[in-house]
Amino acid sequence: MMSPVDDVWTPVTAQVAPTRGTFEAHVLAVVRRIPHGRVATYGDIALLAGRPRAWRAVGTIMRTCRSPTVPCHRVVSAGGRVGGYSDPLRKQQLLQDEGIMVGHNTIRHFAKVRWTVRPARRAHPS
Predict the structure, then answer these.
(1) How open is the CA angle 31-22-30, to the nearest 5 degrees?
(2) Is residue 15 predicted with pLDDT exceeding 70?
């Protein structure tokens, strides 16, 4: 697991067992790592799951996920908009219960609560 202040993280694609090598499994593994009281965008999750342009696919995965072990409410739209959820008021309440301030469908102080990590650089072969 990684601390929210770490700025380098090994991509999930290297950490998920080969039998669960689907993009969905990578997305769910990344979302499980979002710390309590932090949020990440659909694009952030797509990048960390290995497909940087697949933010819409991340949204679909979040929409269909029913696992109680995946904190889907911590995934938000670009710019800190709360985004979709089966029950938008419930999503707001879950975020507020974690200390995240939400006003008019937007995360307040978004830059402060956004969980941002950089994927680890790959070594160049010599």
Answers:
(1) 15
(2) no
How many Å separate Cα 112 from the centre of its chain? 15
d(CA 89, CA 97): 12
Q: Mind listing the pLDDT tens digit for each residue in 29-63? A: 999 999 999 999 999 999 999 999 999 999 999 99
Domains of the chain and CATH, by start: 8-116 (1.10.10.10)
Q: Where are the alpha helices (DSSP H) in 1-126?
A: 23-32, 42-48, 55-64, 88-97, 110-113
- Per the annotation, the verdict on 65 as an active-site residue is no
72-95 in b/e form (b: 16+ CB < 10 A) is bbbbbbeebebbebeeeeebbebb
How far apart (Å, rounded) are the C-alpha atoms in residues 49 and 11?
Answer: 7
* β 118-119/75-76 pair status: unpaired
Say yes or no to pLDDT of 105 above 70: yes
Of the residues 12, 27, 72, 82, only one is catalytic, namely: 72
